[in-house]
Amino acid sequence: MHATVDVRPYGGPDGEDWFIVSDLGCAVGGAGGIGKKDEGVVLGVGGASTTLAGITVRTPVATALDLGTGSGIQALHAAQHATLVTATDLNPRALDFTRLTLALSGARGAELLRGSLFEPVDGDTYDLIVSNPPFVISPGAGLTYRDGGMTGDDLCRTLVQQAGDRLNDGGYAQFLANWQHVDGEEWQDRLRSWVPAGCDAWIVQREVQDVTQYTELWLRDSGEHRGDREEYRRAYGRWLDEFEAGKTKAIGFGWITLRKNAAVASGRIEPSIVVEEWPHPVEQPLGDTVRAHFERQDYLRGRDDAALLADSFVLAPEVVQEQVGLPGAEDPEHVLLRQNRGMRRATRVDHVAAGFAGVCDGTLSAGRILDAIGQLTGEDPVMLRDRTPQAIRLLVEEGFLLPATGEETA
After folding, report:
1. Which of 95, 245, 365, 395 has the fewest other C-beta atoms within 10 Å?
2. CB 358 within 8 Å of CB 400
3. How far apart are CA 293 and CA 317, in angstroms?
4. What is the reported pTM?
Protein backbone atom coordinates (compact mmCIF):
# COMPACT_ATOMS: atom_id res chain seq x y z
CA MET A 1 0.00 0.00 0.00
CA HIS A 2 1.18 3.54 -0.70
CA ALA A 3 -0.26 7.01 -0.47
CA THR A 4 -1.68 8.67 -3.58
CA VAL A 5 -1.81 12.16 -2.07
CA ASP A 6 0.03 14.12 0.62
CA VAL A 7 -2.08 14.88 3.70
CA ARG A 8 -0.10 17.21 5.92
CA PRO A 9 -0.94 18.85 9.28
CA TYR A 10 -1.27 22.62 9.24
CA GLY A 11 -1.76 24.78 12.30
CA GLY A 12 -4.52 27.38 12.05
CA PRO A 13 -4.06 30.95 13.31
CA ASP A 14 -5.85 30.18 16.60
CA GLY A 15 -4.23 26.80 17.17
CA GLU A 16 -6.64 24.79 15.02
CA ASP A 17 -5.51 21.37 13.80
CA TRP A 18 -6.04 21.52 10.05
CA PHE A 19 -4.93 19.27 7.18
CA ILE A 20 -3.83 20.30 3.68
CA VAL A 21 -4.13 17.85 0.79
CA SER A 22 -1.72 18.12 -2.16
CA ASP A 23 0.04 15.92 -4.68
CA LEU A 24 2.89 13.75 -3.50
CA GLY A 25 6.20 15.58 -3.52
CA CYS A 26 4.43 18.93 -3.69
CA ALA A 27 3.71 19.60 -0.04
CA VAL A 28 5.80 22.75 -0.16
CA GLY A 29 5.49 24.63 -3.43
CA GLY A 30 7.13 27.67 -4.97
CA ALA A 31 10.50 27.29 -6.65
CA GLY A 32 11.43 24.29 -4.54
CA GLY A 33 12.52 22.18 -7.46
CA ILE A 34 9.50 19.86 -7.45
CA GLY A 35 10.42 18.52 -10.85
CA LYS A 36 8.49 18.55 -14.08
CA LYS A 37 5.17 17.13 -12.94
CA ASP A 38 1.97 16.75 -14.90
CA GLU A 39 0.49 20.15 -15.65
CA GLY A 40 -2.49 19.33 -13.40
CA VAL A 41 -0.34 19.09 -10.29
CA VAL A 42 -1.77 20.55 -7.06
CA LEU A 43 0.77 22.17 -4.75
CA GLY A 44 0.57 22.29 -0.99
CA VAL A 45 1.40 25.15 1.32
CA GLY A 46 4.52 27.17 0.50
CA GLY A 47 5.87 30.59 1.30
CA ALA A 48 3.53 32.36 -1.14
CA SER A 49 0.48 30.65 0.37
CA THR A 50 1.34 31.63 3.93
CA THR A 51 2.23 35.17 2.86
CA LEU A 52 -1.19 35.70 1.28
CA ALA A 53 -2.95 34.14 4.27
CA GLY A 54 -1.00 36.46 6.57
CA ILE A 55 -1.79 39.73 4.76
CA THR A 56 -5.50 38.99 4.29
CA VAL A 57 -7.92 41.21 6.20
CA ARG A 58 -9.78 38.91 8.61
CA THR A 59 -12.98 40.77 9.45
CA PRO A 60 -16.32 38.89 9.46
CA VAL A 61 -17.87 38.98 5.98
CA ALA A 62 -20.89 37.48 4.25
CA THR A 63 -19.12 36.30 1.07
CA ALA A 64 -15.55 35.42 0.13
CA LEU A 65 -13.99 34.21 -3.12
CA ASP A 66 -10.78 32.19 -3.36
CA LEU A 67 -9.79 32.46 -7.01
CA GLY A 68 -7.38 29.72 -8.12
CA THR A 69 -7.80 27.75 -4.91
CA GLY A 70 -5.20 25.01 -5.47
CA SER A 71 -5.11 22.86 -2.34
CA GLY A 72 -7.69 25.08 -0.65
CA ILE A 73 -5.55 26.82 1.97
CA GLN A 74 -7.03 30.30 1.35
CA ALA A 75 -10.59 28.91 1.29
CA LEU A 76 -9.89 27.17 4.60
CA HIS A 77 -8.78 30.43 6.21
CA ALA A 78 -11.73 32.32 4.71
CA ALA A 79 -14.20 29.74 6.05
CA GLN A 80 -13.35 30.90 9.57
CA HIS A 81 -14.80 34.39 9.07
CA ALA A 82 -16.99 34.26 5.94
CA THR A 83 -20.54 32.96 5.87
CA LEU A 84 -20.28 31.72 2.29
CA VAL A 85 -16.99 30.79 0.60
CA THR A 86 -16.65 30.22 -3.14
CA ALA A 87 -13.48 28.58 -4.50
CA THR A 88 -12.59 28.37 -8.19
CA ASP A 89 -9.83 26.74 -10.19
CA LEU A 90 -9.13 25.84 -13.80
CA ASN A 91 -7.82 22.46 -12.62
CA PRO A 92 -10.66 20.08 -11.60
CA ARG A 93 -8.27 18.08 -9.39
CA ALA A 94 -7.64 21.22 -7.34
CA LEU A 95 -11.35 21.47 -6.58
CA ASP A 96 -11.37 17.84 -5.39
CA PHE A 97 -8.34 18.51 -3.20
CA THR A 98 -9.97 21.64 -1.76
CA ARG A 99 -13.11 19.69 -0.89
CA LEU A 100 -11.00 17.14 0.97
CA THR A 101 -8.88 19.82 2.68
CA LEU A 102 -12.01 21.50 4.05
CA ALA A 103 -13.61 18.23 5.13
CA LEU A 104 -10.54 16.86 6.91
CA SER A 105 -10.07 20.19 8.69
CA GLY A 106 -13.65 20.28 9.93
CA ALA A 107 -14.40 23.50 8.06
CA ARG A 108 -17.63 24.58 6.46
CA GLY A 109 -17.91 23.42 2.87
CA ALA A 110 -17.41 25.83 -0.01
CA GLU A 111 -19.06 26.42 -3.35
CA LEU A 112 -16.56 24.89 -5.82
CA LEU A 113 -16.58 26.14 -9.41
CA ARG A 114 -14.32 25.28 -12.34
CA GLY A 115 -13.03 27.96 -14.69
CA SER A 116 -10.46 30.68 -15.37
CA LEU A 117 -10.29 34.04 -13.58
CA PHE A 118 -13.78 35.41 -12.85
CA GLU A 119 -15.58 33.38 -15.54
CA PRO A 120 -17.12 30.79 -13.17
CA VAL A 121 -18.78 33.32 -10.84
CA ASP A 122 -20.85 35.10 -13.49
CA GLY A 123 -21.90 38.50 -12.10
CA ASP A 124 -21.58 37.74 -8.38
CA THR A 125 -19.90 40.20 -6.03
CA TYR A 126 -18.00 39.56 -2.80
CA ASP A 127 -16.85 41.18 0.41
CA LEU A 128 -13.43 39.51 0.14
CA ILE A 129 -11.49 38.20 -2.85
CA VAL A 130 -8.13 36.46 -2.44
CA SER A 131 -5.90 34.90 -5.05
CA ASN A 132 -2.45 33.36 -5.27
CA PRO A 133 -2.66 33.11 -9.06
CA PRO A 134 -0.32 31.39 -11.53
CA PHE A 135 1.73 34.59 -11.74
CA VAL A 136 4.99 33.27 -13.22
CA ILE A 137 5.93 35.22 -16.36
CA SER A 138 7.10 32.50 -18.73
CA PRO A 139 7.16 31.69 -22.45
CA GLY A 140 4.05 29.54 -22.75
CA ALA A 141 1.71 27.88 -20.28
CA GLY A 142 3.37 24.54 -19.60
CA LEU A 143 2.50 24.24 -15.90
CA THR A 144 -1.04 25.15 -14.87
CA TYR A 145 -0.17 25.68 -11.22
CA ARG A 146 2.29 28.49 -11.94
CA ASP A 147 2.18 29.72 -15.57
CA GLY A 148 -0.57 32.18 -16.46
CA GLY A 149 -0.60 31.45 -20.17
CA MET A 150 -0.87 35.13 -21.11
CA THR A 151 1.78 37.47 -22.45
CA GLY A 152 4.05 38.99 -19.81
CA ASP A 153 2.19 40.07 -16.67
CA ASP A 154 -1.18 40.27 -18.44
CA LEU A 155 -2.78 37.63 -16.21
CA CYS A 156 -2.05 39.55 -13.02
CA ARG A 157 -3.10 42.83 -14.64
CA THR A 158 -6.37 41.32 -15.88
CA LEU A 159 -7.12 39.82 -12.48
CA VAL A 160 -6.60 43.13 -10.70
CA GLN A 161 -8.52 45.19 -13.24
CA GLN A 162 -11.53 42.86 -13.24
CA ALA A 163 -11.67 42.62 -9.44
CA GLY A 164 -13.16 46.10 -9.02
CA ASP A 165 -16.51 45.09 -10.52
CA ARG A 166 -16.61 41.96 -8.31
CA LEU A 167 -16.28 43.75 -4.96
CA ASN A 168 -19.05 44.99 -2.69
CA ASP A 169 -18.59 48.45 -1.21
CA GLY A 170 -15.92 48.30 1.49
CA GLY A 171 -14.75 44.91 0.28
CA TYR A 172 -11.11 43.90 -0.15
CA ALA A 173 -9.36 42.07 -2.98
CA GLN A 174 -5.88 40.80 -2.13
CA PHE A 175 -3.42 39.18 -4.52
CA LEU A 176 0.15 38.05 -4.89
CA ALA A 177 1.58 39.03 -8.26
CA ASN A 178 4.60 39.34 -10.50
CA TRP A 179 5.06 42.38 -12.73
CA GLN A 180 7.50 43.46 -15.40
CA HIS A 181 10.03 46.25 -15.08
CA VAL A 182 10.07 47.55 -18.63
CA ASP A 183 12.70 49.79 -20.21
CA GLY A 184 11.49 53.38 -20.42
CA GLU A 185 8.60 52.86 -17.99
CA GLU A 186 8.38 53.39 -14.23
CA TRP A 187 7.17 50.20 -12.57
CA GLN A 188 5.08 52.25 -10.15
CA ASP A 189 3.19 53.86 -13.05
CA ARG A 190 2.64 50.44 -14.60
CA LEU A 191 0.96 49.18 -11.45
CA ARG A 192 -1.08 52.33 -10.87
CA SER A 193 -2.60 51.78 -14.30
CA TRP A 194 -3.87 48.39 -13.13
CA VAL A 195 -6.02 49.80 -10.32
CA PRO A 196 -9.70 49.65 -11.31
CA ALA A 197 -12.05 52.63 -11.03
CA GLY A 198 -13.80 53.00 -7.70
CA CYS A 199 -11.01 51.40 -5.68
CA ASP A 200 -8.28 52.49 -3.31
CA ALA A 201 -5.08 50.45 -3.53
CA TRP A 202 -1.96 49.58 -1.57
CA ILE A 203 0.73 47.86 -3.62
CA VAL A 204 3.98 46.68 -2.01
CA GLN A 205 6.94 45.42 -4.01
CA ARG A 206 8.79 42.93 -1.84
CA GLU A 207 11.48 41.64 -4.22
CA VAL A 208 13.04 42.34 -7.61
CA GLN A 209 15.03 39.89 -9.74
CA ASP A 210 16.81 40.51 -13.02
CA VAL A 211 15.66 38.33 -15.90
CA THR A 212 18.53 35.84 -15.59
CA GLN A 213 17.89 35.23 -11.88
CA TYR A 214 14.19 34.87 -12.55
CA THR A 215 14.72 32.43 -15.41
CA GLU A 216 17.06 30.24 -13.39
CA LEU A 217 14.67 30.24 -10.41
CA TRP A 218 11.72 28.88 -12.35
CA LEU A 219 13.71 26.47 -14.52
CA ARG A 220 14.88 24.94 -11.25
CA ASP A 221 11.30 24.86 -10.03
CA SER A 222 10.29 22.67 -12.97
CA GLY A 223 13.40 20.51 -12.61
CA GLU A 224 14.77 21.37 -16.04
CA HIS A 225 18.23 21.94 -14.61
CA ARG A 226 18.42 18.19 -13.95
CA GLY A 227 17.71 17.12 -17.53
CA ASP A 228 19.59 17.30 -20.79
CA ARG A 229 22.05 20.20 -20.73
CA GLU A 230 21.35 21.23 -24.32
CA GLU A 231 17.60 21.26 -23.72
CA TYR A 232 18.17 23.42 -20.64
CA ARG A 233 20.14 25.91 -22.74
CA ARG A 234 17.34 26.06 -25.29
CA ALA A 235 14.73 26.63 -22.57
CA TYR A 236 16.91 29.32 -21.01
CA GLY A 237 17.18 31.02 -24.38
CA ARG A 238 13.41 30.96 -24.91
CA TRP A 239 12.85 32.73 -21.59
CA LEU A 240 15.44 35.41 -22.31
CA ASP A 241 14.11 35.93 -25.84
CA GLU A 242 10.63 36.48 -24.39
CA PHE A 243 11.92 39.07 -21.94
CA GLU A 244 13.91 40.85 -24.63
CA ALA A 245 10.86 41.00 -26.90
CA GLY A 246 8.90 42.66 -24.10
CA LYS A 247 11.78 45.03 -23.19
CA THR A 248 11.71 43.48 -19.70
CA LYS A 249 14.78 44.16 -17.59
CA ALA A 250 13.56 42.75 -14.26
CA ILE A 251 10.59 41.14 -12.52
CA GLY A 252 8.97 42.45 -9.36
CA PHE A 253 7.08 40.39 -6.81
CA GLY A 254 4.73 41.66 -4.16
CA TRP A 255 1.28 42.21 -2.72
CA ILE A 256 -1.68 44.04 -4.21
CA THR A 257 -4.66 45.06 -2.05
CA LEU A 258 -7.73 46.80 -3.42
CA ARG A 259 -10.59 48.25 -1.37
CA LYS A 260 -13.87 49.19 -3.04
CA ASN A 261 -14.84 52.71 -1.99
CA ALA A 262 -18.24 54.16 -2.86
CA ALA A 263 -17.00 57.72 -2.35
CA VAL A 264 -14.24 57.13 -4.91
CA ALA A 265 -16.62 55.41 -7.31
CA SER A 266 -18.99 58.40 -7.17
CA GLY A 267 -16.18 60.89 -7.71
CA ARG A 268 -16.64 62.62 -4.34
CA ILE A 269 -13.01 61.97 -3.39
CA GLU A 270 -9.84 61.00 -5.22
CA PRO A 271 -8.63 57.40 -4.84
CA SER A 272 -5.76 56.61 -2.50
CA ILE A 273 -3.21 54.63 -4.51
CA VAL A 274 0.01 53.89 -2.64
CA VAL A 275 2.73 52.03 -4.57
CA GLU A 276 5.93 51.42 -2.65
CA GLU A 277 8.95 49.18 -2.33
CA TRP A 278 9.51 47.53 1.05
CA PRO A 279 11.97 44.58 0.90
CA HIS A 280 12.63 44.58 4.65
CA PRO A 281 11.37 42.07 7.26
CA VAL A 282 7.78 42.45 8.44
CA GLU A 283 5.77 40.87 11.23
CA GLN A 284 3.04 38.53 10.05
CA PRO A 285 0.08 38.35 10.25
CA LEU A 286 -0.49 41.74 8.62
CA GLY A 287 -4.23 41.68 8.04
CA ASP A 288 -4.92 44.27 10.74
CA THR A 289 -2.04 46.40 9.41
CA VAL A 290 -3.55 46.34 5.92
CA ARG A 291 -6.98 47.33 7.22
CA ALA A 292 -5.47 50.10 9.35
CA HIS A 293 -3.59 51.49 6.33
CA PHE A 294 -6.84 52.19 4.50
CA GLU A 295 -8.51 53.59 7.61
CA ARG A 296 -5.66 56.08 8.02
CA GLN A 297 -5.97 57.09 4.38
CA ASP A 298 -9.66 57.81 4.98
CA TYR A 299 -8.76 59.89 8.02
CA LEU A 300 -6.13 61.97 6.21
CA ARG A 301 -8.30 62.63 3.17
CA GLY A 302 -10.98 64.05 5.43
CA ARG A 303 -8.80 66.66 7.15
CA ASP A 304 -7.06 69.81 6.00
CA ASP A 305 -4.13 71.20 7.98
CA ALA A 306 -6.34 73.19 10.36
CA ALA A 307 -8.42 70.12 11.22
CA LEU A 308 -5.26 68.04 11.64
CA LEU A 309 -3.84 70.52 14.17
CA ALA A 310 -7.12 70.48 16.10
CA ASP A 311 -6.95 66.70 16.54
CA SER A 312 -4.97 64.76 19.11
CA PHE A 313 -2.80 61.70 18.52
CA VAL A 314 -1.17 58.80 20.34
CA LEU A 315 2.13 57.12 19.59
CA ALA A 316 1.61 53.66 18.10
CA PRO A 317 2.57 50.68 20.30
CA GLU A 318 6.22 49.63 20.31
CA VAL A 319 7.58 52.64 18.42
CA VAL A 320 11.09 53.49 19.61
CA GLN A 321 13.44 56.40 18.98
CA GLU A 322 17.01 55.87 17.79
CA GLN A 323 19.63 58.62 17.78
CA VAL A 324 22.59 58.35 15.43
CA GLY A 325 25.74 60.38 15.89
CA LEU A 326 29.29 60.41 17.17
CA PRO A 327 29.82 59.20 20.75
CA GLY A 328 29.81 62.10 23.18
CA ALA A 329 28.40 64.58 20.66
CA GLU A 330 26.01 67.14 22.12
CA ASP A 331 23.40 66.59 19.40
CA PRO A 332 22.70 63.51 17.24
CA GLU A 333 23.31 63.67 13.49
CA HIS A 334 19.77 62.44 12.96
CA VAL A 335 16.87 60.83 14.81
CA LEU A 336 14.92 57.76 13.67
CA LEU A 337 11.52 56.52 14.72
CA ARG A 338 11.26 52.75 14.31
CA GLN A 339 8.29 50.39 14.51
CA ASN A 340 8.74 46.97 16.09
CA ARG A 341 5.39 45.69 14.85
CA GLY A 342 3.60 45.31 11.53
CA MET A 343 5.58 46.72 8.61
CA ARG A 344 8.47 47.60 10.95
CA ARG A 345 9.08 50.89 9.23
CA ALA A 346 11.75 53.42 10.13
CA THR A 347 11.68 57.10 9.27
CA ARG A 348 14.05 59.99 9.90
CA VAL A 349 12.56 62.97 11.74
CA ASP A 350 13.79 66.38 12.89
CA HIS A 351 13.90 67.43 16.54
CA VAL A 352 10.43 69.01 16.37
CA ALA A 353 8.74 65.88 14.96
CA ALA A 354 10.62 63.66 17.42
CA GLY A 355 9.56 65.82 20.35
CA PHE A 356 6.01 66.01 19.02
CA ALA A 357 5.71 62.23 18.68
CA GLY A 358 7.17 61.67 22.13
CA VAL A 359 4.46 63.61 23.94
CA CYS A 360 1.48 62.42 21.92
CA ASP A 361 -0.73 60.65 24.46
CA GLY A 362 -4.14 61.78 23.22
CA THR A 363 -4.65 64.52 25.79
CA LEU A 364 -3.49 67.61 23.89
CA SER A 365 -4.27 68.73 20.36
CA ALA A 366 -1.45 68.79 17.82
CA GLY A 367 -1.62 72.60 17.70
CA ARG A 368 -1.24 72.99 21.47
CA ILE A 369 1.74 70.61 21.47
CA LEU A 370 3.43 72.67 18.74
CA ASP A 371 2.79 75.87 20.72
CA ALA A 372 4.49 74.29 23.74
CA ILE A 373 7.45 73.15 21.63
CA GLY A 374 7.78 76.66 20.25
CA GLN A 375 7.94 78.12 23.76
CA LEU A 376 10.60 75.59 24.82
CA THR A 377 12.79 75.99 21.73
CA GLY A 378 12.24 79.66 21.04
CA GLU A 379 10.81 78.94 17.59
CA ASP A 380 7.87 80.93 16.21
CA PRO A 381 4.70 78.88 16.96
CA VAL A 382 3.03 80.26 13.83
CA MET A 383 5.90 78.96 11.69
CA LEU A 384 5.75 75.59 13.45
CA ARG A 385 2.02 75.32 12.79
CA ASP A 386 2.67 76.15 9.15
CA ARG A 387 5.44 73.67 8.41
CA THR A 388 4.73 70.71 10.71
CA PRO A 389 1.41 69.32 9.36
CA GLN A 390 3.24 67.67 6.45
CA ALA A 391 5.45 65.75 8.90
CA ILE A 392 2.40 64.80 10.99
CA ARG A 393 0.65 63.50 7.89
CA LEU A 394 3.64 61.30 7.04
CA LEU A 395 3.81 59.90 10.58
CA VAL A 396 0.09 59.13 10.51
CA GLU A 397 0.21 57.66 7.00
CA GLU A 398 3.02 55.28 7.94
CA GLY A 399 1.40 54.29 11.23
CA PHE A 400 3.75 55.94 13.75
CA LEU A 401 0.97 58.18 15.08
CA LEU A 402 -2.65 57.14 15.51
CA PRO A 403 -5.62 59.54 15.66
CA ALA A 404 -6.97 59.66 19.21
CA THR A 405 -10.37 60.92 18.05
CA GLY A 406 -12.99 58.20 17.91
CA GLU A 407 -11.85 54.59 17.66
CA GLU A 408 -8.08 54.34 17.49
CA THR A 409 -6.51 52.45 14.61
CA ALA A 410 -3.86 49.83 15.35
Report:
1. 245
2. no
3. 15
4. 0.93
